[in-house]
Every structure is written in C-alpha cells, then in structure tokens.
User: Fold this.
Amino acid sequence: MAKIALGVASSISIYKACEILRGFQKEGHDVQVIETRNAAALIPPALFDALSGRRTIVELFDDRQPWSVAHVALAKEIALFVVAPATANILAKFACGLADDFLSTFYLAVRTPVLIAPAMNEAMWIHPQTQDNVRRLRERGVEFVEPAGGYLACGDEGQGRLADPQRIIARGLDLLCRGTGLRGKKVLVTAGPTREAMDPVRYLSNRSSGKMGFEVAREALRRGADVVLIAGPVAIAPPSGLEVVPVTSAAEMKEAVDKHFSGADVTVMAAAVADFMFRAPAVRKVKKETLPAGLEIVRTPDILKELGGRKRPGQILVGFAAETNAVEAAARKKLREKNLDLIVANDVSREGTGFEADVNQAVLIDRRGKSRKTDILSKRALAAVIWDAVEGLREKKK
Ligand code: CTP
Assistant:
C-alpha cells in the first residue's frame, strides 16, 4: 500500500476526482486529498474527508494539521502525486514555481513522480501559454494524461474534458509500481558533451545534446533514487528534484565525478566526454594569421576507465559506447577494458537516432556477456530499459 496525494483544482469536472480517489483506494492505496480554495468552493472538503478518511488539506497554514511543516512532511510520505483535475491556473503556477497556496507549495516539495490530468475550455488548453507551461513541466519530468475531446461544460465542443478517470488511475498505478525500485539508492549520472578550450573563444566538442543522460537521470528519479546529475554544456532544462552540477571541460567533469563517485550505488556515464583537449589553451584569442602551431592536442583523462579501476564491490558502473561500425564488438571490448557492469552501445552513424535525436536504438551488454538489442525507442523508454537491466544486475548481486 502506498500513500498518494490527490490534488484537486476548480474545474467543473471536479466530481470525477471522487471516482479517481475511489479507484486508488480499491487498489489498496491511501489517498490524501489537497484542494485549492476555489475547488473547496465547488466541493466542500467534508465530502473528500468522508471518502478518503483523512482531513482534506486546503490552507497552507492550518494549526489543526498534525505536522509542523505540512507540505514538506507530506511530500516525504507519498509515493505519487496526482493532480486531477488541473486548471490552466495551477499548470501556470507549477510551471513558474509560484507557491502561494498549499497545492502549489506542495508541488515544489514533492520528489516523487507527478501525474497531471488537465481539464479546461479548449481555447484555454490550446493557448500557446498553456501549452508552453505543459512543455516546461514535461521537461521537468511531469507526466500528463491529456484532456479528451467532446462536449465541454461551457457548451463548446472540443479538447478539454478531463480524461477518463480509469485512464488516470491506470497511469497513476503504472507510475507507482515503477517508483520504488531505486528507493534509497544514490545514483550518479553524467550527461552532455564536454568542451575543451583552444583559446578564450574556440573549443573542441561533439554533437551530444544531453537528452539521453537527462532521461537516464529522470528515470532514476522516477524510481525513487537520489540523483546527482553532472551535465556538460547543453541547451535543455534538467529535471527538477535532483542535484545538478554543471561542468564545461573533461577535467571539470572528472573532478565532479570524483567528488560523488564513492557515495554512489550506481554510476551511469552517459556523457560524451571529449577524447582530446589542448595541452595549454591560449590565454588570448589566436589570430588567424598565426596558425596555432604551438597548440598541442592531448588525450583527456578517461573518467570511466579510471572509475572501473577503483569501484568497490557492489557498486554498479554503466558506460555508453558511441560507435560507427562493428558496434557490438567494440562495445564488448570497452566493457572489458573499463571493468563495467553494463554497456549501452549505439550506432551513431545511423540517420535519425543517437546524437541530438529524440529516439535511440541500442545494444545492452552486461558483465556476463549477455546482450540485448532494443527496438528504436524514445530516449525516455530506452532509459527505462537501461534501469530495468541495472535493477536486474542489482538483484543478482545481492
Ligand atoms: N568516457 C569517459 N572519459 C573519456 C571518454 C569517454 O569517461 N575521456 C566514457 C563515456 O562517458 C562513455 C564511455 O567512456 O560512457 C565510452 O565513450 P566512447 O567515446 O564511446 O569511447 P572511448 O572509450 O572514448 O573510445 P573511442 O572514442 O576510441 O571509441
């Protein structure tokens, strides 16, 4: 049995929140309802009190609640946070980090998976501002059950109806059962490229977007891990709920990894660390008339190999291999030479997958030599496959 927080905002579809509450209870879960003030004007807390067997929370400062800092205390107790129905207003508040009532303050304190089911008039739903808020929340790992089409309370037809409560319950249960595999585990993930300065203006780098590593971090977070994400320079926003350490060069990444590695149960090196750097970057911009003859290129430290040489028993180390030919053979060699527990190899010469893309196809090879080729998957789905494999290895290590 898990504890679920059910946030309820002031949409006409609010009555469906009762069915959602009941659905989670039928699966044996304990539901704590949180209403916004406007929602409490539509359905008074007493109804939810009776259904949930718990005092519904509306106000941020309520002396009658048994916790001292209720939003933080409750956030630590729950395994899932569902908001259904969610209004355009609550989406905007979550997306901006506004915290002026219990529900929005609670969102910022939550570290578990968040599932939102919006409901509103179609014009409000498709408004670019609302869609922008949804996109920002998605980037931070929030899951959505999108509104359905049909007759709306305002008399219009269109997309905006709260999704079928049974779908919302099913998605919630799905998130819940994936949410505990890494609970209490410390996970270290690196992501993105590194940049090796030639002079104050130019650098050597690669095409890594950081998307794969960010999804790996996000999925670990969803499964309940404490995650540290060491990220090279990327253009995407990191998920919330984890510690982000921004770095630029391979040397900086190594320093950050060294700081966190000993405390990590699982380390995933998804970063595309530049293999070369300038031995002595020029202090001033190199003028084009003077060919940079003195700028010698040397190897960067192989962070992963060095970790493989000093990992302690029980610690799991996962590497990536970006290859353009003989993918599996090259990956097996890296697995062995870097003393890894798992390697995720992908063919970066293929159009449409790998670097910069949203999808990827990989071969996973574990330390026993067992390999598995995935279909073309979203990077999010591939991250789930990787963590399933890691959790499988952890089981066997026990
Ligand atoms: N890696 C690392 N430090 C480096 C280079 C790579 O930690 N200086 C890690 C990457 O994060 C990845 C793995 O090693 O998990 C494999 O990186 P890849 O570039 O594919 O392989 P290399 O070992 O660098 O070999 P090559 O480029 O010759 O294929």
